[in-house]
Structures are given as C-alpha cells and as structure tokens.
Design a protein that fits this description.
The chain has helices at about 15-35, 40-60, 65-70, 75, 85-110, 115-130, 140-145, 160-170, 185, 195-205, 215-225, 255-264; strands spanning about 5-10, 150-155, 180, 210-215, 230-235, 250. By secondary structure, it is an alpha/beta fold. It has 2 domains: about 5-15 and about 135-264, Rossmann fold; about 15-130, no CATH class. Strand 4 (about 210-215), helix 11 (about 215-225) and strand 5 form a beta-alpha-beta unit.
Length: about 260
Amino acid sequence: MTISTIIFDLDDTLLWDKKSIAEAFRLTCEEAAEKLGETIDFSQLEEDVRAAARTLYEAYPVYAYTQMIGINPFEGLWGDFDDPTPQFQEMKELVPSYRRDAWTNGLRSYGIEDAALGAYLGEYFVAARKRSPFLYKETFEVLEQLKEKYQLVLLTNGAPSLQNTKLEITPELVPYFDHIIISGDFGKGKPDASIFDHVLKTANITAEEGIMVGDNLMTDILGSSRINMKNVWINRENKEPSPIVTPTFEIDDLKQLQQIVTSI
C-alpha cells in the first residue's frame, strides 16, 4: 500500500538536541570560569555534572514515570514541567533543587565546593539551553519537499511543556505538521504500541499507510514495529545495530528519505 503519512520523531531526528545540550553545558561552564576567575576544564566539569545529574535523577520516586514518558536527566535540568498530571507536578516541585544539586555536586566532584555557585549555574543552564536551539541543516529542505505530497505527523516523547518550549524556540517547524503528538499528553511514550495506535487514529490511517522516521532504535523503531508499521532509522552517528530491533530501512542523512518513501 502506498505511503500517505510520514511520522517524525523530534529530538535528534529533526532537532539536534544533543548539540543544544552540549552548547548549554559549554556556555554554563564558561560562565563558571568567569565567576571563579580561573581556568576550568569544561569537558571534565560537564562530565561531572552529567554524572551527578544522572545519580540524582534515578533516585527520585518519579523516575519510573519519566522513563515511561521519555524524559532524560538533562531535560530535567532545564524544563519547568508545569503540566497537569500529579507526576509532572511532582517534577515541577523537584527540578529547582535538582538543578541546584546537580551543579553543586558536579562542582564538588570537580574539586570546587561552592553551593551558591551551583545554585546560580543551575539557573544559568536553563537560559543557556533556551538560547541554543539547533536543527540539522537538511531538516527544512526535507520537510519542504515532503509537505506537498504527504501528511506529516510529529510524534515526540516528553513533557508537553518542555517539548512545546522546544517548538516555540524553533517556530518554523510547527507549520509543516498536520498533527503534533506528545507522549506526556497521551499518557504513555514510545515504544508503547498504544501511542502508535493513537497516531493511526489521529491521522486516520492504517499502519500500512504510515512510516516512522527516528533516531532511536529502542523507541521509534521498536514501537512502530510493534504495530507492523514500516520505519526508517536515521543513524547519523554510525551506531551499531541492535540484535533485537531491525529497522525496515536505515539512512545516515534525512535527504535519503524521499527516495525511500517514493519507492514503497
């Protein structure tokens, strides 16, 4: 059956989220050096803060919920999570201390004991991430080519407030999509089959009429496979294949997508 609908993941498929987070860390470490008046090994401090953030994040009671919805520790470092579910409200209460403690503990691991600086950098990181949106250079070119011929759906894991913030700071993306579905609104995240069934109902298509495009084998590709939907793994970083998840197609540049969908 001919493909009528292309479903895109957002983070690290269209938006270059890893680069945005890395840039926010760089800017914040730069600010730390300026405040301290000394040279800092940015990569080491970033590594220490990332490790501290993971340790804190995994200990919170709400951690299982974040895993189910699809929110990683570094999104917790800049999101406000002002969303209606009790779990998101719990996160909203947690994140100010989480940001403070992640940076304070990271500084301590690096060898700097300064709680006031940790608190300051925790908030500085939020602003730094918001002013560091990056997209892949081919994103708009590919969406422009596809928009006239296909229904386009954005399917993203995460908190609605945070994913919508990402879209607000990259407003050119939104008009390309007929539907935008966020796991936090639905209640379950990829790879749960139910959110893919929800996409089919929202877009009014069958699984055979859609194709999922994403960078994550264990969410985008596994989830779409569970409803027998074709999928495309965008593997820009030459990652090793998975022994348990096999994509229908694999590409390393979004520009290769049009040839795939027109050949099906």
